Amino acid sequence: MGTQYCSWLLRFLLPSLWEAEVAISAAALLAATVALLVILDQTTPTISSPPSSPTTEVYGRDSHSRCRRQRRSRAKRSNKALAEPGRASEIEIAADGSPSRGTTTAYAIKVELVSAKYLIGANLNGTSEPYAVISLGRQKRFTSMVPSSRNPVWGEGFNFLVAELPAEVTITIYDWDNVCKCKVIGSVTLAILGKDETGATWYDLDSRSGQICLHISSMEVFPTSDSFFKQYTGAKSQTKMLLNKQRLSRTEDSGPLQAITEFPHDEIVHHNYFCALERSFLHCGRMCISSWHLCFHSNVFSKQLNVIIPLQDIYEIKRSQHSLINPAITIFLHTGAGGHGAPTLSSQNGSIRYKFTSFWNRNRTFRSLETALQSYRATLDAEKQVRSHLLPNGESMNVISSRTDNIKTEDRSIELAITYQPFINEHVLVDVTSNTFPGTPEKFFTVILGDNAMFFQQYRDARKDTDLKLSKWHVSDVYGGNFREVTFRSLCNSPLCPPDTAVTELQRASFSKDKRNLIYETKQQAHDVPFGSYFEIHCRWSLRTTSSSTCQVDIKIGVNMKKWCILQSKIKSGATDEYRREVCKILEAASDYALKAESNDPASDDTVATSSA
């Protein structure tokens, strides 16, 4: 019995001759495959992942020498241009329709993809993860991805610069897939015949179902500088005025940033690290940090993934954890930032973010990111100081780079124009009320909204709201005007909601040049209510001076759905009705408070309490 048991155990544990032959053959085949891949990798000059140094040779020796000679000649031409202050920088149109240098006339086309509806459900659960690719000739723009939606809302605009009209714009909607090739949901091609602006118009896709809403405008422009050229062609590298002369004379070697992007050769990588981008699974790749951008490149299962984040879009950088034990870095972006090559993640409070993990040294990477962001913001501050000294004297921004001294006034005004991101979604706004405020717009801002004003403190106390925190007003480089953040806890009256909820309200105020008009916009989100991360309440107060002591106030509100849900219509109607009553009470209380403040009556506190009750 024992002998039989031992022989059975040996047959069970030891492999048979057939199993050994299969294992040896598989090992030999695997070794041959690896050897073949190594040989092909050594003979092919392509790059599978960026090297660890920005000066590493990523191309062949001949191409490396040729790029160096081209950069030397380009630097000589740039220095020659700098030495001739009377020679203006010009733009020409290349053969493929994209602009370059030589002529002074072009057409700027802005395509805003508002939303889509009735898209094909590409997933098994009947939904899709749609994103759009907008192309005009060789120019392409990418929108962000909207998860699990057949009726996505983007609200993203993109600029193109073309030689002549008519031109054709193609919008293709894809379904995002992490492993397989992204599937085409539908597309549409539009012809832009001339200078014109269309409202929000719905267009049918060339599929069995689906429509997209587009807002297209085109105008004739007269570009005279690289800053204008890059602004309208969507170039991702921003040339800063203080560093123009320095960057034009650089002759550094091409680095990993140019290997995966179309950035100019003068933008070099200062740091690069191995890491992974969090998605449904981790995409391993390499992060590159330059003076203007943060880039990530990954190649998993032959699927390329490039993420390009301008430093101007970064709001905050935090240390975090992935799966409780893996150190990570979370990068929060400004509201409305998108189109970085890969969809962002959404937080419960509505902020958008990217999470990177699997660092060799997380703290070292975090310090490098902080240093790059601080240097970028310091450059912006220096630009503002120089601009404040130059503009009163009528000098152009190009004086610093010594490019030209004879730009015409109309060209100078075009060049100095700044394009800001929209703070709220205007397409969801509806008229609520129109009334008169006893004071000018300046008085409204000082008495009601100012840093030293006590109106909101007294109004929230009267409503029994708690934990009110108001930040100081500061200038916004993204949206223009003044900006601040307000947080508080508000009581909930709905039986489906908790007793109270945390509320974040972003406020923006902007005056006209003559101070006679004021635009006051708010964007409010409740975090603890059901589907709170799915929507925001947008509001706009338009104040127009009618006399020396009064102004007309027009208020519009709307519910901006960031994600689609089955209760979307009920959420919109309920939130709109509740906030309509809220803004009417705020306007009434503000009017009474302004009258009492003008007469210096200490009973103004009672007035606010009575109006908000």
Which tags fit this structure?
about 625 residues, alpha+beta, eight-stranded antiparallel beta sheet, 26 strands
Q: Would you give an account of this structure?
A:
- The chain is 28% helix and 33% strand.
- With 613 residues, the chain is α+β, with helices and mostly antiparallel strands.
- Strands 11, 12, 13, 14, 15, 16, 17 and 18 form an 8-stranded antiparallel sheet that branches. Strands 19, 20, 21, 22, 23, 24, 25 and 26 form an 8-stranded antiparallel sheet that branches. The chain has a 4-stranded antiparallel sheet with strand order 6-3-10-9.
Short overview:
About 30% of the residues lie in helices and about 35% in strands.
